[in-house]
Amino acid sequence: MIEYKSKENIAKMRAAGRVVARSLRIMSESIVPGKTSPADLDALAARIVAEAGGVPSFLNYRGFPANTCISVNNVVVHGIPTATPLEEGDIVSLDMGVELDGWHADGAWTYPVGTVSQDAKRLLNVTREALFQGISKAKVGNRIGDIAHAVQKYVESNGYSVVRDLVGHGIGRHLHEEPSSVPNFGRAGEGELIKSGLTICIEPMVNQGTYKVVTLPDKWTLVTEDGKLSAHFEHAIAITRDGVEILTVE
Ligand code: MG
Description:
The protein is of the alpha+beta class. The chain has 4 helices and 15 strands. It has a single domain, classed as Creatinase/methionine aminopeptidase superfamily (Creatine Amidinohydrolase, Alpha-Beta Complex). A hairpin with a 6-residue loop joins strand 7 (168-170) and strand 8 (177-182). It is globular. The two termini are 30 Å apart. The protein binds magnesium ion.
């Protein structure tokens, strides 16, 4: 059952979301090409979250072994942070959740490492804009399918594909809760009706080539089947009669 949140609940999620946004920004600003590794960024995130009095939501979630998911180049999502330094020209997706005072927020952003190719830059721009196209349909009285369709339409009209195997989700007292699926593909007018107090994560995962993905033997890391690049942007949002609010901002 979906738990529709009160103003007080949303205020707590906003506080958690601020820590997510702050962590992602500081992590991204600390990247030195050829030097900083995903493991360094993961340790930095742990410090920032602890200083804010929160707990990283991903750590030990279904056995996940790190504080953050860090996914480089052809890794779509759920990359386990490694000690291999990021290199000039890479794209790196930083994805993390924070639990603060019993409430979760979850966000992701894909960053260029130093100077990246025009193709990579375009992929990042299209994926970020796809997220905002989805958010623009997040209104009381619309349906989840309206969000899904807007994301898919924008991505495919730009010549890219949306990952099918993973979707956005409800969020609140739990990292993942009802509605259990906020897809990045589908038909307008279908799916759950959006009512005031709905809190969800919209998170397009966009591939340069095929939408097909493969799970590596570590059982977490998801890569593109064709080895091409993938980007991921995610915001946690609250939808009320007053409109939509992005919770994962500073
Ligand atoms: Mg998420």
